[in-house]
Amino acid sequence: MSFAVLASTFANNILPIILLSGAGFALGKLLHVDPRSLGRVVFYVFSPVLIFDLLVHNRLELAETAIVIAFALCLTLAIGALTLLMGILLRLERPALVSILITTMFANTGNYGLPLVSFAFGEQALSYAAIYFIATTLLFFTLGVFLASLGHMNVREAALGLFKIPTLYAVLLAILINIWNIEIPTPVARAVELGADGTIPLMLILLGVQLTHVEFSKNQRAMQLSVSLKLVMAPLVALLFAALFGLQGFSRQAGVTEASMPSMVNATVLATEYNLDSRLVTAVVFISTLLSPLTLTPLLVFLGR
Description:
Elements: H1 3-31, H2 35-56, H3 62-89, H4 94-105, H5 109-121, H6 123-148, H7 155-162, H8 166-180, H9 186-210, H10 220-244, H11 249-259, H12 267-273, H13 278-303
């Protein structure tokens, strides 16, 4: 693995993401853009449109889709179990332990993972990445919320909260259209195409804006544990699970790459909402994102062989 190959991989696949996210970071610092408002636009409009567009044009077999979903769920739970064990061994306090569970289990598979997979491996791999993104997003808003609430969440409220996720309706609608072979009217199809084309750039701008709100934590042990598990251990576990699930080609490239992303930015929302260690969460998100090119670049070279 020569330096020239690493440099080329970084420049062609990761640097464009850094540049656009950097523009978002500058925008947030200079113009004080509200990340919550921008995030709602992405969450309620652009993200569901992108997922709908990817699924409608997705030609994956049902068996392939099921395997990717099972891979995503099992991997997330395995990383969570490993994080819990390490946190207990280090005798972390409950708020810190729950905080690193969230930051380690849930990766930034949307506004970082999707464009990276698209750049590195193309549209076919992006189809698998979209399935992974959907599975982990739904898991985040169920299991993630449950963990953040420390087990005091009402089950009925959790179930109702799932139906507030617009991506869920995009998935269901796309499934019905594919099953019944419904032809989408041209105006709607073009509107969806326009929205889908703009989603990834907007996601990257949002990522940069969100990273302007960073507070550093004094809990160095927890922060180092979460970052190392997310960037080093998660890719290794993902490669192992990819072999166990028989993932090959584009599905392996997409699944392992998505699993190796830095911590999900939305984890900071849960930390604030449920009174966790918000400084620890934001620090892990920022540092893991900052260091991610160091681990993702050689990983992309390895997966592209």
